[in-house]
């Protein structure tokens, strides 16, 4: 499965209060990390509708990452806890539809953790590279 | 003046939608008086060639129930589309894919193997499985092809209106027929039922607490269901929040939670994901282990949340790669 030329397409939903700034910090600190993840800024990880995730998969994403504030740090008190509840149920649902659970991740990255953001993106890119392309839509017949 | 011509057809369905027409009771006499039924395989002896002989567009309206999963069904709905002014997708299967749409968790091979070879009750020593064509002494015999993927009607042909429900209730059918006869139709593509969620009209709404908090998921056989209380409050999976209303709450009146046969409201494309979103936020814990434990008690989330709508959902079917 592992194809050396395969560059996974990843979609990241980044909470604007923590991870989006963490990603900014990774940039201004000149930390090198793979360019595979397309960051999408959202108001809160709790704003990430499962529909966003399914749309990303159906339109060609090989992996999706939801980034939020560490537990207890949510700008809206408990948006990230809602994200955890949805994430766990959504993982179960996509597995039933034949999408490996490794393709959907939930990660906590604060505004101060630029290095951690770069590390997480690197790890996930590697992992999805090993897993291979999802090719949603191309496996569909009739 | 000639009466408008009407056709009924069935695809992958159970026959319940045909029953729903009969459930119009005395009202069916009004319908028969006002229209000329030119094709209805379950009740009248017209053949495909009779439809083929009709002029294009000469049928005023075709009511088509059932999902589309064979080559024959596809040919028939394409034929009826050509011959009809209006096409109404009648019932959940035709509207969303319905119960037959759950076959999208597998593909043709998996289904045929299971049904013809591996079920415990199968007695098939020669391992005969259906073929689309077979040579015999009297010539070639053919069968329609079964597709890997079950489709809702609008994934195969252009659909003008949708009558939701498993099966659609008589009052909605009568409203639709009257609207067509009087030419008072809403914009093309409308679902002919109110665009509000079931919870909006549910009587149990009155006793619902301000915030629904769920600690345990229950299945209907596990508890004595309180006939007054909100099902979700009792820990039962009720699709009401994500389901279109207008059904007359037959299940709720029968003390059973909503299963979602009316599909989503106009604003929602993927009802399973929307229900998941609403339902998960009701879980009454912030502890990850506890969340996992509760989620694990939901035996079949995809099959439950997409019970009637898998083919019309965003992902449409299971990815069979590596299975």
The largest beta-sheet of chain A arranges its strands as 2-1-3-4
- Helix content percent band of chain B: 25-40%
Number of beta strands of chain A = 4
Major beta sheet of chain B, specifics?
5 strands, parallel
User: Any idea of the CATH topology of chain A?
Assistant: Rossmann fold
Share in β-strands of chain A: 15-25%
The proportion of residues in beta strands of chain B is: 5-15%
**What is the CATH superfamily of the largest domain in chain B?**
NADH:ubiquinone oxidoreductase-like, 20kDa subunit
CATH class of the largest domain in chain B: Alpha Beta
Low-confidence parts of chain A lasting 5 or more residues at pLDDT below 50? none
What is the total domain count of chain B? 3
H/I helix tally of chain B: 12
Q: Calculate the mean pLDDT score of chain A and round it.
A: 93
Number of domains in the coordinates of chain A? Answer: 1
- Uncertain regions of chain B: pLDDT < 50 for 5+ in a row? none
Gap between N and C termini of chain B: 59 Å
Oligomeric state of shown chains: heterodimer
- What is the structural class of chain A? alpha/beta
Shape of chain A: globular
Written overview of the protein:
The complex is a heterodimer of chains A (142) and B (323). With 142 residues, chain A is an alpha/beta fold. Chain A has helices spanning 19-28, 50-58, 79-96, 114-131; strands spanning 10-15, 37-42, 63-68, 104-108. Chain A has a single domain, classed as Rossmann fold, CATH 3.40.50. Chain B folds into 3 domains: 5-99 and 150-182, Rossmann fold; 105-147, no CATH class; 198-305, no CATH class. Helix content of chain B is 29%, strand content 14%. In chain B, the strands form 3 sheets. In chain B, strands 2-1-3-5-9 form a 5-stranded parallel beta sheet, sandwiched between helices. Chain B has helices at 16-22, 27-34, 48-53, 71-83, 92-96, 108-118, 170-182, 198-201, 250-253, 271-280, 288-296, 301-305; strands spanning 5-10, 36-39, 59-65, 68-70, 84-90, 133-136, 139-142, 146-151, 161-163. The chains are: A alpha/beta (142), B alpha/beta (323). The A-B interface holds A 49-51, 53-55, 57-58, 71, 78, 81-82, 84-86, 88-90, 92-93, 96-99, 134-136, 139-142 and B 105, 107, 147-149, 151, 269-270, 272-274, 276-277, 279-281, 283, 286, 288, 291-292, 295, 298, 300-303, 305, 313-323.
């Amino acid at each position: 499965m592992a194809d050396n030329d395969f560059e996974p397409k990843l979609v990241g939903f980044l909470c604007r209060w923590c991870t989006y700034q963490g990603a900014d910090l990774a940039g201004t600190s000149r930390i090198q990390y793979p360019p595979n993840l397309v960051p999408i800024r959202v108001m809160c990880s709790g704003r990430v509708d499962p529909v966003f995730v399914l749309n990303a998969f159906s339109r060609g994403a090989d992996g999706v990452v939801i980034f939020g504030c560490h537990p207890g740090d949510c700008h809206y008190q408990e948006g990230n806890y809602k994200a955890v509840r949805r994430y766990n149920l959504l993982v179960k649902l996509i597995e039933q539809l034949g999408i490996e659970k490794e393709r959907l991740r939930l990660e906590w990255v604060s505004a101060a953790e630029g290095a951690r953001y770069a590390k997480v993106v690197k790890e996930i890119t590697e992992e999805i590279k090993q897993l291979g392309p999802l090719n949603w839509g191309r496996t569909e017949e009739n | 003046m000639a009466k408008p011509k009407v056709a009924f057809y069935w695809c992958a369905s159970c026959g319940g939608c045909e029953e729903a027409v009969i459930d119009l009771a005395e009202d069916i006499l009004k319908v028969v008086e006002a229209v000329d039924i030119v094709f209805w395989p379950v009740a009248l002896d017209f053949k495909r060639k009779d439809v083929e002989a009709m002029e294009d567009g000469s049928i005023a309206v075709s009511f088509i129930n059932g999902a589309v999963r064979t080559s024959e069904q596809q040919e028939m709905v394409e034929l009826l589309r050509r011959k009809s002014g209006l096409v109404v997708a009648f019932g959940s299967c035709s509207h969303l894919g319905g119960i037959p749409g759950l076959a999208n968790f597998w593909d043709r091979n998996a289904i045929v193997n299971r049904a013809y070879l591996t079920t415990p009750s199968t007695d098939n020593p020669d391992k005969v499985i259906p073929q689309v064509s077979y040579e015999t002494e009297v010539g070639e015999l053919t069968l329609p092809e079964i597709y890997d993927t079950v489709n809702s009607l609008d994934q195969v042909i252009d659909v003008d209106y949708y009558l939701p429900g498993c099966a659609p209730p008589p009052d909605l059918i009568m409203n639709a027929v009257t609207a067509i006869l009087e030419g008072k139709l809403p914009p093309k593509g409308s679902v002919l039922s109110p665009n509000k969620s079931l919870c909006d009209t549910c009587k149990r709404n009155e006793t619902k607490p301000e915030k629904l908090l769920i600690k345990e998921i229950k299945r209907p056989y596990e508890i004595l269901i309180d006939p007054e209380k909100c099902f979700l409050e009792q820990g039962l999976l009720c699709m009401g929040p994500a389901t279109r209303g207008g059904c007359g709450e037959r299940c709720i009146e029968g003390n059973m939670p909503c299963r979602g046969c009316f599909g989503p409201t106009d604003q929602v494309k993927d009802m399973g994901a929307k229900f998941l979103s609403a339902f998960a936020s009701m879980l009454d814990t912030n502890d990850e282990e506890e969340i996992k434990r509760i989620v694990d008690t939901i035996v079949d989330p995809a099959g439950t949340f997409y019970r009637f709508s898998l083919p019309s959902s965003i992902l449409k079917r299971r990815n069979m790669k590596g299975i």
